[in-house]
Amino acid sequence: MRYVAKGILICFVVACVAMLAAWLFLSSALFSSIRTTFVENLISKKLGQDVRIEDEVRLGLGWQLQVSATGLELPGSQNADVKLAAIDEIEFEVSARDLWNSKLSLSGLSLSGVHLNLITDKDGFGNWQSISQTEAEAGKPANSPTPLLAGILTDRKIDLTDIAITYQNDLNGLELDLQLPELLLKRDTETDVATAVGAGSLNGERFELNATFPAEDPFQVTVNFEQIAIAADEVPQENGLQVKTSIEIAELGQLLDILKLNRVLDGTGNIGATFKSVDGVARIDGLSVLAELDGGQSLSLTGQIGELGNPEDVSLTTRIRLYPEDAEPAPAASRYDLKLIAVDMVIDSVPGQVPQRQMVIKTNGFTLDTSGEGPPPIKFSELSRTPEGALKVGNINLRIGNPADPFIILNGSVDDTLQLQGISAEGLIDIPASSLISPELLGPDDQLGRFSGDFHLNGDINQLSLTNLDGKTSDTDVWNLEVHGTVKNVLKFEDLDLGIDVSVPSGADLLEALSLERVETGQARLEIDLVSEGTDWNASANVEVADSVLQILADLDDATSEPVLRGSIESDLIKIDQIRTIVQAAAQLRKIGGPEPEEKGSKQEDEGDQGALRDVTLKPIGRSILLSGMDMDVDVDLRHIEGAKGISSLQSELTLNKNELKAGPLKFEYGGASFDVSGQMDLSNDANLLTLTGNAGGWQLDDILHNLNFKKGASGTVYADFSITGGTDSPKHFANSMSGNATVSLRDGSIETQLLDLAGLGVLPWVFTKDKQKVAPIVCLRAPIIISNGNLSTKQTTLETDHVQVVVFGAVDLTRKALDLNLQPRKIGEPLSKSPWPVTLKGPLAKPKVKVKDGPKRLKRSDGADKMPVKRKLCVPDILQLQ
């Protein structure tokens, strides 16, 4: 009995000592460092991250080992100044058996005061790095990480309070401050559904979080801000993961607040996309982004991003609209009214194939549509948030034109993308030089060479400056073009200093290079200097063609409500022969524009729009100046006009105001001939009709035909007076729409009988001359003409030879290029006699049908007059002279 009692006493003492030792180990400050090291190693091993406990660790005995620690810290990577994480207090229970077997199975987990810091410095080094990463860098094999929740959590409820996560990236300026006062994670044992419920704020913007994670069914996650709703729904898949995400934004301003960007946009938006991950390959399908601003601007983006990280697997369609479709600006006739409406971009890139792209720039004056094989029209990278709250694009590449051969390339950056401020870019221009003259000239055999150069752009959406412009032509001997200068405000074309120099060694070679007929103009040169400062404009030009020189000066002050352009056109030497070649060359150059508007319109109806440039409504620069509302006062002084028949001069004046354009009187005398012409255009309505009045006389018909390269001979002295009005869209439009009257007369003339044969009148040689001769005399010709909408009609046109008078009546339709004329020849002084062989000309102007008919019966005046006056008038129908 005594031994039993002694044994019990010994066991009791041992138990007490063990309990005391356990108590000392669990609670005594003496063993605090041991407890701390034990727990640090336990957690570090499972997290793969160094863990330090700065305060104390308390352990409690029971069915489960109760662990409580305060001052938990996760240090950052080496050389990191900021710790990765800090936990004010952590409590959990762990099974002693699992602990003995080196398993960490936590239950009753509670975290309070969680502070996570994810920091990346400007060199790209982050403050987080796991033990496995460190071992990998040291050449040690890394163990496969054990999933945290699956490996160490066995509880059905986790309570997290006072969570703060800070993300800061000095590379892109992104800062995120996530505050979660409480986050509850739990799993329903009956339904086996895990849920997460919490509320907090992101960069000061409050939100609510709800998520469900069924064991077998797809998960759902929703995050709701005041103006933003985010939803992510898993789509069931046999293999991999597929998540459909949508974001509805009722106010874009809150999104900017979340991203800590300046609140400079107001509007709505939505984003939709499907994320897929199969066998380690991730992609985004069904991407749809739409942002609509309160001002009417919008951005839409649709398509897919194939394998993430592979730029060759992208198909995107982007549309940027600066005006809503139902409120686009009116078509612009003047360049001052030109506005950008929309930009559409398409990129379709498939791995292993050449990427296809398209870029459409739409304005209210034209549309530029380019498509083909090549890189995307725009690339950008290095997005970042500035300390001032602006969104910066550090690297942007814009290619405008043909994808394989863009004519403008811009490389630069934008300091504030949302407001388009702080733009800085280096630009390259490289285009076929023929496109500077007309887009229709583009082709593989371009003899005009190329125009290339560089420039710099800087500024913002309100004032974009172009500096260091330096361009010139190359790869051609036909001409040389150089352009230099600066434009302080490109968008408004203000404050500029430009110099343009064009030299042409041979005008004939240039015309031939343009696939036009050669005209021997000799060498030519054009020098233009254009300078503006504020509202003051100054322009000077020097034009040289062979020996002829023309100086043009112009000044404009646009500060007044009614600006006036004052200028002068002067010359000390112009040769008449060179004027002829200049006119002929100008006639050839007019062919560059292609068919007239009427023909072009019908052609487009048959063939559709062709070429990159379409829907052009801009008027030629000359017409746009007329419609600008600017007043103009230009003096013309050609002091020395030299020709084979003498020397002359010409002075005139050109004035323009908001209601009308006046030119003249333009008076010129040379070699016994003269003309006096005045012009006036009514600008008070949309018709813009031009009225020409004047007279001319003393001009020799044979000289006129010679200057027109007409081979067959005719002579006589030509006189004319006229007053006609017509439209101004083109010379053809003027001819087809003109109305008014004109009288053309000829005296002491002759015509080769060969020319009569060509006209079909050779069947009546006796009308023009008694004997068949090479030349038929024409005593006079007088043609009073009435003009109406391009239709010329006459009733009293009279031609007289030495013994016959021919009266012509009928019409010529310039629009349809047809005529219908009747010619009645009679012996002079016998108007009532029967016309022996009247002639009709009817049909196309180029080849009318000539028909000789039996003469009509004798004529009779209604008033009975039947006697010719004693003194007969030339080229007045004899029947009208009867008494």
UniProtKB/TrEMBL annotation:
InterPro entries: AsmA, AsmA-related
Coiled-coil ranges (or none): none
Annotated Pfam families: AsmA
One of the GO BP terms on file: regulation of protein targeting to membrane
Domain AsmA: 8-141, 518-796
Gene Ontology CC annotations of this record: plasma membrane
Chain residue ranges for the region called Disordered: 590-613
Protein name, entry field: AsmA-like protein
Organism: Ruegeria conchae
